[in-house]
Q: What sequence folds into this?
């Protein structure tokens, strides 16, 4: 048997002999005890080296003397236990292994932030931490720990952007937030960009204000201040004031209304027995070869269904100028631009990570949750859009000189 293996075997024998290990919990208790003893021995060794002589050494000439210990409770990954920090009369000893005033060596803050990011409630986080480490964490403690990421959020919200994003999606997702002892619905407005390499990136999140041209102009101007100079195509639902804001901030940007939202808004007025045929007719519009053919089909479908469902097709005519841009492009580009599925998928993920929080205590708390969820979601965005080479080559020709 090799020396290293002999050492491991001896340690296991000592553990078994000292702690009479029979269960996994016994191992946990033993490790906690060993961890505490190891830390204490390391701290004592640090102290001996700092003092220049070992304890009970009466021969060495001394310029500084030992002065007892200070006891403190320390939180660790193995639970909470008491350590004794050696003291010297001159106050020169600065422990490295467990620094002065340090009472948490478990990295528990990172774990709490991770649990918070995954949508766990305060009670669930407390239960998890108690089960794992035997440490109780209050709602205030969780709030204080997660507040540590606020500077990081501010830095993220003001970071420099690419100078051009060929395609940008805008949408809103709604949450309940407590404000002045009332629970109100607030929107989180999300801007998702697709860069020149076909990679997605959340450009920013804005909370609270009502939709208006003034609000959206503020968002777009914020993006411009952060270095964004051009957007080729911007896709959105029928957000109030968005078209006017785009025209002002990015006058050369094409605004594309989401076809999927148009379909959903239309079928709300249609009886179930007519649904299949009605949707088939709508599909013939947005799969048309060109704009003229699509508009002619819209008129035919309006004659067919107009008397029975007048409201179902009104929005198509009213918004035709924002619906028709995608007809100019190939199927590869159409698939990217005529639907906001990318950002709707993002919003579903946000709801997944926030579903246990029925009401947020503040805008700040909501922002923390959305930011942490964004970090988790974006880690999964490792691939670019399908057929992106074809898409970017076509856009380079259609928007000559801008990419």
A:
């Amino acid at each position: 048997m090799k020396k290293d293996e002999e050492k491991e075997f001896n340690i296991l024998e000592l553990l078994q002999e000292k702690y009479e290990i029979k269960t996994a919990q016994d191992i946990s208790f033993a490790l906690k005890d060993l961890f505490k003893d190891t830390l204490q021995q390391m701290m004592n060794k640090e102290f001996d080296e700092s003092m220049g002589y070992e304890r009970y050494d009466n021969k060495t000439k001394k310029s500084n003397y030992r002065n007892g210990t200070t006891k403190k409770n320390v939180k660790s990954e193995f639970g909470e236990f008491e350590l004794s920090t050696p003291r010297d009369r001159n106050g020169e000893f600065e422990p490295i292994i467990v620094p002065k005033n340090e009472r948490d060596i478990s990295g528990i803050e990172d774990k709490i932030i991770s649990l918070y990011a995954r949508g766990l409630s305060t009670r669930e986080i407390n239960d998890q931490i108690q089960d794992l480490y035997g440490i109780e964490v209050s709602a205030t403690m969780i709030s204080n720990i997660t507040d540590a990421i606020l500077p990081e959020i501010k830095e993220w919200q003001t970071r420099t952007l690419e100078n051009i994003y060929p395609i940008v999606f805008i949408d809103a997702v709604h949450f309940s937030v407590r404000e002045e002892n009332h629970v109100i619905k607030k929107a989180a407005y999300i801007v998702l960009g697709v860069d020149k390499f076909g990679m997605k990136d959340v450009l920013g999140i804005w909370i609270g204000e009502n939709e208006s041209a003034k609000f959206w102009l503020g968002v777009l101007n914020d993006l411009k201040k952060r270095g964004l100079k051009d957007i080729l195509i911007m896709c959105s639902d029928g957000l109030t004031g968005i078209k006017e804001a785009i025209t002002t901030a990015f006058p050369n940007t094409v605004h594309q209304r989401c076809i999927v939202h148009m379909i959903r808004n239309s079928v709300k007025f249609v009886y179930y027995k007519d649904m299949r045929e009605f949707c088939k007719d709508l599909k013939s519009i947005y799969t048309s070869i060109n704009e003229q053919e699509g508009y002619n089909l819209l008129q035919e479908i309006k004659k067919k269904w107009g008397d029975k469902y007048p409201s179902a097709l009104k929005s198509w005519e009213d918004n035709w100028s924002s619906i028709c841009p995608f007809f100019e492009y190939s199927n590869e580009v159409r698939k990217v631009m005529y639907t906001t599925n990318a950002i709707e998928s993002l919003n579903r993920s946000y709801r997944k990570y926030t579903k246990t929080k029925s009401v947020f205590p503040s805008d700040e708390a909501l922002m923390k949750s959305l930011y942490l969820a964004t970090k988790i979601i974006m880690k999964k965005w490792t691939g670019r859009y399908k057929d992106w080479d074809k898409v970017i080559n076509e856009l380079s020709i259609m928007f000559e000189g801008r990419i």
Q: What stands out?
A: Residues 24-51 form the longest helix (28 residues). The beta strands are 66-76, 79-88, 164-179, 182-194, 200-207, 230-236, 254-257. The chain has a mean pLDDT of 85.
